[in-house]
Amino acid sequence: MNILHLKMMASVAASGSLQKSALQLHRSQSAISMALKKLEQDAGFALFNRDGYRLQLTPHGQQFLRQAEEVLRQHERLDTLSSRLRTGAEPHLTLCFDHTCDARYWLDAITLVQSEFPATELRFEGESQLRALRRINQAEADLAICPWLPLFRQYGEFETLRISPFQLVVVMHRQLADEHGGIPDNRQQLLGLPMLVPQVLEVGISVESILKLPSQRRIQTSDVATQRDLLLAGLGWGVIPLHMAAPYLASGELVQIEIPGFVHRVNLEVHIIRSAVRSPGPAAEAIWQAFANR
């Protein structure tokens, strides 16, 4: 059985006519008729009922066609893969994002790759503690989305594009505030409460040293999702991305801490990042240009 014969069978099954299939496939009716007979000889049973005006599949033919259509789909995917590999398209593409960022930033990029590079397999991975930067630096990922500070350039050769603003806010659970006489209004009162702080980041940066929040009582967390859960459990106060705190601030479950002369909001940016020393493949470059044109 060959692919061309299966294509002919699928065309005849859809049109019910040798003549129509011949026109669609640019073949003679006799060539298509012979292909069907060869398929039936190989299968050992009739594929079509030829008694009526329209060719119709037999019950066996219907089952055979379902499998044949799957073979044709697989063949098309294999053919597309071969074409992309010949022209240098990536067989797979790894996209990372830091868990502090909204993963939905990647949705348009995923749609683009599925449409323009169907043979490229996507690997979509979340990371904590800015590990995405390390993975770009070590060629373990093609593109990453994460918070960005200019000082990160000392940890690798990066090229970046700004995507959106990124804000960190200081918050705590309302119940915890009520248990200690209300929302802290001075530095001493705040630093007397447990602070939920991320561990030293993968690139070797301490969030405490950046934000200069020397709480005497600390609970270190491995990722921002855990930090948020501990905040919602009322186990301390912490600095968290505004977009992750916003629903709970709106409901009143969390409250923002604003102390004059003390950090209460940090304004950063979210960037898409790639290596500045490696050449991107066509799919990675298409994603990059899509972000550049936003």
UniProtKB/TrEMBL annotation:
Transmembrane segments: none annotated. The keyword Transcription regulation applies. Residues 1-58 form the HTH lysR-type domain. Keywords: DNA-binding, Transcription, Transcription regulation. Signal peptide: none annotated. Belongs to the LysR transcriptional regulatory family. PANTHER family: HTH-TYPE TRANSCRIPTIONAL REGULATOR, HTH-TYPE TRANSCRIPTIONAL REGULATOR YHAJ-RELATED. This is LysR family transcriptional regulator.
